[in-house]
Amino acid sequence: MRKHYRSEIVDEQSLAEDPMQQFALWFRQTAASHLFEPNAMVVSTATADARPSSRTVLLKQFDERGFVFFTNYASRKGVEIAENPYVSLLFPWHPIARQVIVTGTAARIGRDETAAYFRSRPHGSQLGAWASAQSQVIGSRAELDRRYAELAERYPEGAQVPVPPEWGGLRVVPDAVEFWQGHENRLHDRLRYVREGVRWRVERLCP
Questions:
Q1: 106 membership: H or E segment, kind and range
Q2: Sign of dihedral through CA atoms 138, 140, 144, 147?
Q3: Which residues contact 51 (CB under 8 A, 6 or more apart)?
Q4: pTM of the complete model
Q5: Which among 9, 26, 29, 33 has a CA at the least distance from the CA of 101?
Q6: Residue 164 DSSP symbol
Q7: Which of 46, 92, 198, 204 is most open to solvent, judged by the fewest CB atoms within 10 Å of its CB?
């Protein structure tokens, strides 16, 4: 099941000055390759006593401040981040032999920022955020569908749906970002940006 990668060597001098600029470049290239959901990322969190968990989440925003995704704050990842803010993000762009690995700390974004994004969501997704008590045990699918139907009656298409109080954004501020490019003979490029105050240092890792 081993695969030989064929791609260009990534040279340190070709990298952007900071990892968010480099991520923006790779993200554009990945989107242009028509990879399915290039904004899908594996978010790994841990409890206060270091028990880890992972799940796939969609990246919704990124800029020089970090990476933003949205969730129910009472979900498993929301609770774990409240206990332990250290997280890891993995963008698994395997069809183009690339990965990006982010480590950093997560914190809630402002309610105004959350509300602006919530209003941009499709009506059904807005209702879904209310219907689902994310990560909580539910008796049946029928119960979930009943909750959704009640909300759809209360807030028909075109009505303004309020933002759920326990739903919102989390921004991951990176302290290290690794760019992984696959190559033949398992001699992959691994270039990692490490934060040093307000600057970034780039180091090459053995594959």
A1: strand 98-108
A2: negative
A3: none
A4: 0.91
A5: 26
A6: P
A7: 198
Render pLDDT for 22-47 as a digit per residue (tens, 0 to 9).
999 999 999 999 999 999 999 999 99
Which runs of consecutive H residues, i.e. helices, occur in 33-162? 76-83, 111-120, 123-131, 141-154
pLDDT digits (tens, 9 = 90+) for 119-136: 999 999 999 999 999 999
Residue 38 contacts by C-beta under 8 Å, 6 or more apart in sequence?
27, 30, 31, 91, 93
Q: Please, which residues have CB within 8 angstroms of residue 195's CB and are 6 or more apart in sequence?
A: 174, 175, 176
- Stated length of the chain: 207
3-state SS, residue 70: strand
81 in helix, strand or coil? helix
**Of 51, 65, 186, 199, which one is the catalytic site residue?**
186
